[in-house]
Here is the input.
Amino acid sequence: MEAVLRFFAAAHPDVAVDVMCGGPRNIQDRHHVSATPLLWYAGTASGIMAGVLKALVKVADSVRIVGWVRRHDVVIIPGMGVFEGSLPAPPWSEPLRLFLVSLSGRVFGTKVGYVSVGADAVTKRPTRWLFTQAARLATYCSCRDSKSRDVLGGWGIDISSVPVYPDLAFALPVPPPQLGDPKIVCVGVMDYHGGDDADGTEGTNIRDAYICEIELFISKILRAGRDVRLVVGDANGSDDAVVQEIMEDVQRRVPGLDRGRLVAWPAVSLTDIFGAMTSAGSVVAIRFHNVVASLMLGKPTIAISYGSKHDSLMEDWGLTEFCTPVKMLDHEHLAALFTELSDGASQLRDILTERKAASELLLAEQFARISQTLITA
Here is the structure.
């Protein structure tokens, strides 16, 4: 979103821009644009009346979304894995909202653009149908990698007019490059329970196995003399318990650990994540935007993959061998990858510098295309 707002400010300063989103007050304060809440009510009440209320709210929010789209000439959905099932999302939440945006655009003549979005295999038929219709009804759609584009093609969408451009985050400014201290390792963690096809028991097992292996890996590199910063980068605080759990367990696994060698770095924005990573020598992360931030900074990176978006990103940046699936995570294998990453850090940084420059050129091309297709056409 910030990348798109910067584009409008630079290329179309005369265009009136506003946002429908979660946390509108924060967006207004940070970006000085008008913002409307995506959800009218997000209460946590339970019981029969709460169920009735939630159903009424869904209807009200749907009406609000349709009305909001109708009042605009152009609506842009910027980046993210909006067409993915790698994280839980019931059909009546984000998938339904995306469908309503695209359908409303088609009905009322509002141009709808999905810009550098991700797509992945979806097992739930209602979700897949809603995603398919949302993409098909849009005026413009681009994917952030070729695998996402192929997924849309598999859903029956004509992808001949769907270009591939890098993740929009690579258009954002970054701090001046620093080699960082090779002794400091940023480890990005999350409360991962599997995708939308994982039930409660399976999700718990996936989470426990992931946490155990990442704790063993952290303990191993701490014993080898590295210092570790735990980073989440999730503004809603859902990963805080995972960080605390890892901190406590690792301190038990490595008794006598000096204070300051294992720290939790609070990060609720991209700037915070940059702050954690800039002075580090390398990064091991699972959250997709943690991996993106690390590559933006030119840091040698290992991605723990929970979806094809990780695989595609690391392949595009010449780091295929440093991507390992979370469901097969093994701390010994991860440690071996980390040693290989550290040994080749200098050459990897050169590769990342080249890939970042190429991404910036491609995104500049896409912004010019957006101007022609959505704004001035």
Observations:
- The domain at 2-172+358-375 is CATH 3.40.50.2000 (Rossmann fold).
- The chain has two domains: 2-172+358-375, 181-356.
- The mean pLDDT is 91.
- Residues 41 and 57 are 7 Å apart (CA to CA).
